[in-house]
Amino acid sequence: MSEQIIPQPKVKAKSITLSTAVLLILPLIVLGGVIALFLSTGGGLKLTSPIPVEALTVERTILKPGSVDLIIRNAGPEDLTIAQVVINDAVWPMTVSPAQTIPRLRSATVHLDYPWAEGEAYGITIFTTNAIAFAADIPAAVATPQPTGRTFWSFTLIGLYVGVIPIYLGLFWFPALRQLGRRWMTFLLAITAGLLVFLGIDTLTEALEQAQLVPGPIQGIGLVGIGAVATFFLLDAISKRRTTIGKSEASQRLSLAYMIATGIGLHNLGEGLAIGAAFNVGEISLGAFLVVGFILQNITEGLGIIAPVLRDRPGIRQLALMGLVGGGPAILGAWIGGFVPSATLAVVFLAVGTGAVFEVVYEIAKLLHKDTTREPMPLTVFSGIVAGMMLLWVTGLMIK
Amino acid sequence: MAIKLSRRDFLKSGALTLMGTLGAAALGHFTQSAAGASPQPMSHAGQTGHTGRDPMAMAVGEVDHERNGFNPTDILTDFDYGAVSTLPSGQTLREYQWIAANKTIEVVPGIEFPAWTYNGRIPGPTLRCTEGDRIRVNFTNGSDHPHTVHFHGVHPAEMDGVPGEGPGLIQPGESFSYEFDADPFGVHLYHCHASPLARHIAKGLYGAFIVDPKEGRPKVDHEFVMVMNGLDVDFDDVNDFYAVNGIPFHYQNHPIPIRVGETVRIYLINILEFDLINSFHLHANFFHYYPTGTSLTPSEYTDTVMQTQAQRGILEFSYKHPGRYMFHAHNTEFAELGWTGHFEVSL
């Protein structure tokens, strides 16, 4: 990209004088006065609501044999007090720790000694002292996995199947794809862009859905924006810095491969989180073919990672590292989702994933632009991007 | 937390194939460890002393009866015979002073319900009289909504307590004297008939109306009134809790004491709003049932009776064995949401 540098008149950096400082602070002092006045007089408005406004979020449900624990958070503007808990149409004895009254934005644990049965559904209603009912659902009751060596290993296995193995399988195409001509390599790069666009949209949708589950004051949607935009521009800054340092084109392509791996890795982190969390809430359906289908779909991610470096000669070590960066986070995600699921955390990770994936698309677009300025091949790019998106859509179609 | 997953739907499903094994293993592990530990006592839950260690439905804590201004234990035997005088005709006159009022009642421990009440209680006063008595209820509406008192029984249209007849709705601050002869004998009820009717009943405007036959009923050792009601505390037209005489689980917390061989008569009334039926089941015993109490001959010998809204009847029984016996709605959902009590039968 060629940008004309327009010479700018140099502005002399002035040091802040005392008068500037006073002028800067003055509006703040006036603001303080206005706030104080408003708080003391109410500004002529009637500010107390006749109806209690309460909000409560059920953040986690922990099931152990004979007991149910609900981790709840007061997301309302005032303190609230838990009065009674009804589980499947029965008022049930319960305790709230640390106390039945929960201060704003603080969390508490509701404990029920309840003889639940595995695989059955439970509806829980929490009544506050203002007779406001909040519902929590357990779609299918399963003992919540506890962080033992065995469960830790199992979540690791899940991450392996979800992230690491498919990516490595994809990497196995490397020797074959190396034989392809330039046009085919551009096509593969376009496919990768298509895959990533699809993943990016998917990740963003997940982030927005999870944002609905975050307590109101945390502003889930805002978090999505901050996480995605910040990640995008951070990666952009990193890549620009690399370019200006002036490395060879090959090493630039290698770092792009790593960036793709990072983007896919962050996406897989979100994936692992969701799987871990889904297990935690007992959303279970069985089917071994689904694992196969899932490997099928994620194998394309491995393909995407190696696309930029096909014309180079990265060592086995480099490839192994890329696979780990791309797939490994799925394991981390499964751990977090399985042991400490949190909608807020999920939103942050998914937002970061969104920003990363789209930034990588931007990087690939730059590379494609470079390739196509050497040799125009508009249909190759078009068909590649569409094929990439279709690939994920069709594999998804077969499995859903 | 409802987790919605789109593309991940299949991912997690696949993963869960693996997790199934893990879950089973984890569960097995916990079952083993739980077997070693002693089951957690329920005493921390407050009023569950008599339930011992067996988990069962129960509210946490106890309502403040004093602040509520009434106690369901007292309501059982609180028969209001009114101010009695004799009319020139020789007819007995029973006069009552009733006031409708808004009142916040702690219906379930910790949950305050903005109730509408007759004389500040749910259910309202149990009006008791003898067939043929003159009844005069001097009713004042002290609330901020129009109300009425609609009695079940035989009376003229203008005394029916419905909108558009006689005085119609009694407006806030206004008064009216409902006056009629008690007829026929039996166990009846009264309730507000202002619209919207369901809400006026659900908020607490109802009570028992007992008319004794002239010759009286056979003498028994205990007479109790039980008004079966529901509580829709969040106003979604679905009952959140169920009870007899206002407060859920009250007689589970405070069993009704009787003795072996003592005869018991229960005036049972169903005023439950929003649900189609209610029922009464007596444990380890049978009772004679007199539908609406309008006959002195029982129609049935049973241990469970069903009533729709406004249906009522009289139950008579005695216990052969000492111990604690449940009575509850055999709509078990209602039972575990508060409509459960105990008789404590001693020797």
Please describe the structure with a list of short key phrases separated by commas or semicolons.
heterodimer; A: 400 residues; alpha+beta; Immunoglobulin-like; B: 347 residues; six-stranded mixed sheet; five-stranded mixed sheet; globular
Helix fraction of chain B, binned, reads: 10-25%
Q: Report the portion of residues of chain A in β strands.
A: 5-15%
What is CATH's topology name of chain B? Immunoglobulin-like
Mean pLDDT of chain B: 88
Largest interface: A-B, 77 and 58 residues
Determine the N-to-C terminus distance of chain B. Answer: 52 Å
How many structural domains of chain B? 1
Q: Could you say which overall geometry of chain B the principal axes of the C-alpha atoms support?
A: globular
Give me a quick take on this structure.
The complex is a heterodimer of chains A (400) and B (347). By secondary structure, chain A is of the alpha+beta class. Chain A contains 11 helices and 8 strands.
Description:
The complex is a heterodimer of chains A (400) and B (347). Chain A folds into 2 domains: 56-138, Immunoglobulins (Immunoglobulin-like), CATH 2.60.40.10; 149-399. Chain A has helices at 18-41, 149-171, 174-178, 182-211, 220-245, 249-280, 288-306, 316-327, 329-339, 343-374, 378-399; strands at 56-64, 67-74, 80-87, 94-97, 101-102, 107-112, 122-128, 133-138. Chain A has 400 residues and is α+β, with helices and mostly antiparallel strands. Chain A is built from 11 helices and 8 strands. In chain A, the strands form 2 sheets. A 4-stranded antiparallel β-sheet of chain A has the order 1-2-6-4, with no helix packed on it. In chain A, strands 5-3-7-8 form a 4-stranded antiparallel β-sheet, with no helix packed on it. The longest helix of chain A is centred in the middle third of the chain and has 32 residues, at 249-280. Chain B has 347 residues and is α+β, with helices and mostly antiparallel strands. Chain B has a single domain, classed as Immunoglobulin-like (Sandwich), CATH 2.60.40.420. Chain B has helices at residues 8-36, 65-68, 72-75, 197-202, 250-253, 332-336; strands spanning 79-80, 83-86, 92-108, 111-118, 126-130, 134-141, 150-151, 175-181, 186-191, 206-212, 222-231, 241-244, 256-259, 264-270, 277-282, 287-291, 300-302, 304-308, 312-317, 323-328, 340-346. In chain B, the strands form 4 sheets. In chain B, strands 12-11-14-19-16-17 form a 6-stranded mixed β-sheet. A 5-stranded mixed β-sheet of chain B has the order 1-5-10-9-7, with no helix packed on it. Chain B is globular. Chain B starts with 7 loop residues before the first helix and ends with a strand. Classes of the chains: A alpha+beta (400), B alpha+beta (347). At the A-B interface, strand 1, strand 3, strand 8, helix 2 and helix 4 of A face helix 1 and strand 4 of B.
